[in-house]
């Protein structure tokens, strides 16, 4: 009986093995029956539809048939670069140019790979390699100009871009990059701002500011600002300094300090808030605001001071930016809390956008409210902001908002706000 069972098991095992072998042979035969050109089309479709692993598998099948099928090798290298596997991309692409140094697509992909990972000197080297075989090739010239500009040599980059434009004045990428380089050389900015708050039960508040900013190598952008505020028939004056020094790679600091005549503003203020640029488009910050309302001292550590703890969590998603900023205020009797949520859509460039801001509670560090440590109101607000680049030197800022504020327990009023600003780069 046991011998019959063993024989039956052996027969079933042989049948299963035969079935698996036939299946594998059939699949291999099916794959082998598809022409390499058709497999490459399938690989490209997979690569451009975010199925990069599948694309690389198809490319390997092609290269097993013909190790010099360079189009498949280039596509494989590019998918590695898109997955931020830059070393793997280099291995694949360098193999091609070792065999054929002037192979256009491989050189082009190698330049892109080095630009993606910020290796600008290597990008320049491969651009020069491409230009040795393809002189005056616009793509290689443009990418070399990008790498030169990224590495700080904007003068040489501008020369190359002017050369491209002399050959083809309609080359939009070259024109746009040259314009961007010229704008970056405009390191000074003058900005004028006016905004007003109109209330349902009291006189309006008027605010004006004039700011002069300059880009510096050591402290980032430094801004000197004069603020003028008229509230309750009183006029206040304030001077502020902003700076944005870089502390480390992907880390910069927002620094602000100010002094006033103690009317409508704190007599002194200080802000420290480091920002951290994180992978996958995230940004994080955490900071502190200090405001002193004691007219007899520049620094107060007693009840005349206000300390605000704040920060942001932001995320870039394509042309959109979403961020949340909470505020925690240390008061005399209790903690006060508020929060702003911002949705931003970038338009033509990083300097033009449309924003929607939703808020609960007062944003206590903005100039309109920083005049009385006990005047933090409950509020719900909505604001629409628009910033647009105008010509080469000008920016226009427009904003409008509505808020329902509680000024006393059970006593509320409505507030309508407008904000007008114009900036000039030079």
How many β-strands, per DSSP? 15
Compute the CA-based radius of gyration. Answer: 31 Å
The CATH class of the largest domain is identified as: Mainly Beta
The N- to C-terminal Cα distance equals 99 Å
Domains (count): 3
Largest sheet: 14 strands, antiparallel, barrel
Shape: elongated
- CATH topology of the largest domain: the name is Porin
**Percent helix among the residues?**
25-40%
Unreliable stretches: 15-30
Structural class designation: alpha+beta
Tally of helical segments: 10
SSE order, as H and E? HHHHHHHHHHEEEEEEEEEEEEEEE
* Average pLDDT figure: 87
Largest sheet, order of strands side by side?
Answer: 1-2-3-4-6-7-8-9-10-11-12-13-14-15
User: Which architecture of the largest domain per CATH?
Assistant: Beta Barrel
* Percent of residues in β-strands: 35-45%
Descriptive account of the structure:
The protein is α+β, with helices and mostly antiparallel strands. It folds into three domains: 1-33; 35-184, Serine Threonine Protein Phosphatase 5, Tetratricopeptide repeat; 190-425, Beta Barrel (Porin), CATH 2.40.160. The protein has helices spanning 2-32, 36-47, 52-65, 70-82, 86-99, 104-116, 120-133, 138-150, 154-167, 172-184; strands spanning 188-199, 205-216, 220-231, 234-243, 246-248, 251-260, 268-277, 282-292, 305-317, 320-330, 335-346, 353-360, 378-390, 394-408, 411-425. The protein has a 14-stranded antiparallel β-barrel with strand order 1-2-3-4-6-7-8-9-10-11-12-13-14-15. Helix 2 packs antiparallel against helix 3, helix 6 (104-116) packs parallel to helix 8 and helix 9 runs antiparallel to helix 10. The chain is elongated and about 85 Å long. The chain starts with a helix and ends with a strand.
